[in-house]
Design goal:
- The structure holds two protein chains of two kinds.
- The model of chain A has no long low-confidence stretch (mean pLDDT about 95).
- Helix content of chain A is about 75%, strand content about 0%.
- Chain A is mainly α.
- By secondary structure, chain B is an alpha/beta fold.
- Chain B has 13 helices and 18 strands.
- In chain B, helix 2 runs parallel beside helix 11, helix 3 runs parallel beside helix 4 and helix 8 packs parallel to helix 9.
- The termini of chain B are far apart.
- The model of chain B has no long low-confidence stretch (mean pLDDT about 90).
- Classes of the chains: A mainly alpha, B alpha/beta.
- At the A-B interface, helix 1, helix 8 and helix 10 of A face helix 2, strand 9, helix 7, helix 8 and helix 9 of B.
């Protein structure tokens, strides 16, 4: 039972990681709280679902969902955030909140108010040892999250573009004086972050077999708490914070059985960390 | 000055004309439902079903030759919005009666407003006690009526069936944390314990928002209950049923009217098979009223009718029935509603209203071959008679 809860917690934590990483990357480079990121996550789920209905293959739908989210993320960056960068950061924040609400309503108008099902079977089967079960979708989530994290790590540490991106996060002006095209780096940053959110949307769609217009509303604020918990802009910290929150939620509900609202866990953790480690779990002053 | 008098007279005539034209022709009935927002799917069901009823009434010549004019508002599942709507329906639209196609939240805040204005309201499926009861004044809202069941009664009826017919002894309860979930699971727990079953675990989950029930279900699995009673709406219900099967749980799962939607079966897929619910619609009811409604609904909207739609349709028809008996004076309509006796409703035969609460049997349905089918009826008067306050 403890092992089962561990699997439950890590699976949901992995999805939190995929959503939160894009948010922390955007904050790291632009210092914008990208609330509409959760809308991009839901968009990824919808695009993935529609492509799944067209072709019937999960892997293709995952790719299309990620691509759709990446394109949307790029458009948001180019046409909404970049023109507002000379204004105080509250302006893009307001735009972001407005865009998020507009996206939710757009999903409702285009795809209807009903919950849609994302009934993709990969054919892996469950892994069961005694009463412990790692379900097919849990295996899928862990597998895809690990692959994406390895790619992200390799990109950020082994490529020149990744190096430039990390430099931009520290000091965009100096980076640009070294001949780096900062605007292109920002675009790539959004594309990668949004593609990960799109993957998270598709995975949640399959994990819960549900895609619905307001599916982004809880991730919209939970991811913010996770990002702060991990240290704003800190990528390994965000992954750690996501897993911590996923596990903490699962154990509060399933083991301690404390009647404590699930979505408060991330915020309580955030407050505790801010009190004792104000730069987040892995953040440095 | 002359011009002023002219304007004044024109204004008076315009108002009189408007008032006359509305009153002489159409009978205004108000309707509100969560047509957009988080409950938009249920709002659509309620609106569709009531519009179907409206078409039937008007196609048959209206009420004593006068057409019914249905005035529809969207409360977005927001109680503040519902208060504004209630005032608008009374003051601007001057309705003679109101149908609520909404949840408890918006419906209960409008109840004292309609009560004060003396406009009868029939609620389709809102379950909260405060629809028919004013907790501040400590008296019955005698202008408010409910076609659906009180949450406690439906929960108790589910327990009656679970313990007496399904012979469940060890039970786990998982319910959503809102008025509906709390009332229905409280009624279930009380009745099942009274009948001798033991409750192993009681868990609450947040609504809206919860989708990952694996932590709850893993805990339930440890106790290996005979039956899991899940109180919630169909999206969450489908997730619970599906995830329970994924985790290898074999206990019988029982739900309530919140499960009663084709969407539940669609999302849960094959894992929905064998799930039992207590609800307010019997799809195998042979009465033509029921079969015609199910067929016409499907024909008009290309989807299966659900409990929300059927209950809202009933609420509208109960009001129409009272108007056709009593005319358009709200006070007379209320009197006719109070005197309702053995009314042949879509969701069952209504014996009478007790302090606004409906008295009728609770339907037990089971999912079989991807459809809700009749499994039983709970009509024990001890269970289905609402308590007198």
């Amino acid at each position: 039972m403890l092992w089962q809860q561990l699997a439950n917690g890590i699976a949901i934590g992995s999805v939190y990681a995929l959503i939160s990483l894009g948010l922390t990357m955007v904050y790291g480079i632009l210092r914008i709280l990208h609330v509409a990121h959760a809308g991009i996550y839901a968009l990824g789920a919808y695009v993935g679902l529609f492509s799944f209905k067209l072709v019937g293959n999960f892997w293709i739908s995952l790719m299309v969902g990620m691509a759709g989210a990446a394109i949307a993320g790029y458009l948001v960056e180019r046409f909404l955030y970049t023109p507002l960068l000379h204004l105080p950061r509250i302006a893009p924040l307001i735009v972001s909140i407005g865009l998020f609400t507009a996206l939710e309503e757009a999903f409702r108008i285009v795809a209807g108010p009903h919950t849609l099902t994302y009934n993709a079977r990969i054919g892996l089967g469950d892994l069961s040892i005694g009463s412990f079960r790692l379900t097919e979708t849990q295996i899928l989530i862990l597998f895809i999250t690990i692959i994406i994290l390895i790619f992200l790590w390799a990109f950020l540490t082994k490529t020149r573009t990744g190096l430039a991106m990390r430099a931009c996060a520290q000091d965009p002006e100096t980076t640009s004086s070294f001949g780096v095209n900062v605007s292109a780096i920002i675009a790539i940053n959004f594309i990668i972050g949004s593609a990960m959110a799109g993957a998270a949307g598709v995975l949640i769609g399959v994990y819960d077999n549900q895609v619905w217009p307001t599916m982004g509303s809880i991730p919209a604020y939970k991811a913010l708490a996770i990002v702060v918990l991990g240290g704003l802009g800190n990528i390994p910290g965000t992954v750690l914070a996501s897993i911590v929150v996923g596990l903490a939620e699962t154990f509060f509900i399933g083991v301690l059985a404390i009647p404590f609202p699930r979505d408060a866990v991330a915020f309580v953790a955030m407050i505790l960390v801010l009190m004792f480690k104000p730069y987040g779990l892995l953040g440095k002053a | 000055m002359k011009r002023g008098i002219f304007h004044f007279c024109a204004y008076v005539f315009a108002v009189l004309f408007l008032a006359f034209s509305v009153h002489a022709q159409d009978i205004p009935i108000g309707f509100f439902a969560p047509i957009t927002g988080p409950a938009a799917a249920d709002g659509a069901s309620a609106k569709h079903a009531v519009e179907l009823g409206l078409k039937e009434v008007n196609d048959a010549g209206g009420i004593k030759g006068r057409k019914v004019n249905l005035i529809i508002y969207d409360d977005r599942l927001n109680p503040q919005e519902a208060v504004a709507i209630a005032n608008k329906l009374i003051e601007k639209d001057r309705v003679v009666g109101v149908v609520s196609g909404s949840y408890s939240g918006p419906t209960r805040v409008t109840a004292p407003i309609f009560q004060k204005a003396g406009i009868p309201m029939v609620a389709g499926y809102a379950v909260h006690p405060d629809v028919t009861w004013d907790p501040k004044e400590k008296k019955v809202n005698d202008f408010c009526f409910r076609n659906g069941f009180l949450g406690e009664i439906e929960g108790a009826a589910a327990a009656e069936f679970a313990v007496k017919n399904l012979k469940a002894k060890k039970i786990s309860i998982i319910s959503m944390d809102n008025d509906f979930g709390r009332a229905i699971s409280a009624g279930f727990a009380e009745r099942s314990e009274k009948l001798g079953a033991s409750i192993l675990t009681k868990q609450m989950y947040k609504f809206p928002g919860e989708k990952d029930f694996r932590p709850y279900l893993t805990r339930i699995k440890e106790g290996n209950p005979d039956l899991i009673f899940a109180a919630g709406y169909y999206n969450e219900a489908a997730s619970i049923v599906r995830q329970a099967k994924e985790l290898g749980i074999t206990s019988q799962i029982m739900g309530e009217e919140g499960f009663d939607s084709p969407k539940f079966i669609e999302i849960a897929g094959p894992t929905a098979e064998g799930v039992i619910i207590a609800t307010n619609l019997d799809r195998d009811d042979p009465r033509p009223l029921v079969q015609n409604f199910l067929r016409n609904y499907k024909k008009a909207y290309n989807e299966e009718a659900d409990m929300v739609g059927a209950s809202s349709y009933d609420a509208f028809m109960i009001l129409v029935n009272a108007i056709s008996k009593a005319g358009t004076d709200p006070k007379a309509i209320q009197k006719a509603l109070l005197e309702t006796k053995d009314y042949n409703g879509l969701t069952g035969k209504i014996t009478r209203f007790v302090q606004g609460e409906v008295v009728k049997p609770v339907q037990i349905q089971v999912v079989k071959d991807g459809k809700f089918r009749r499994l039983g009826v709970v009509d024990n008067p001890e269970v289905i008679t609402p308590p007198i306050k």
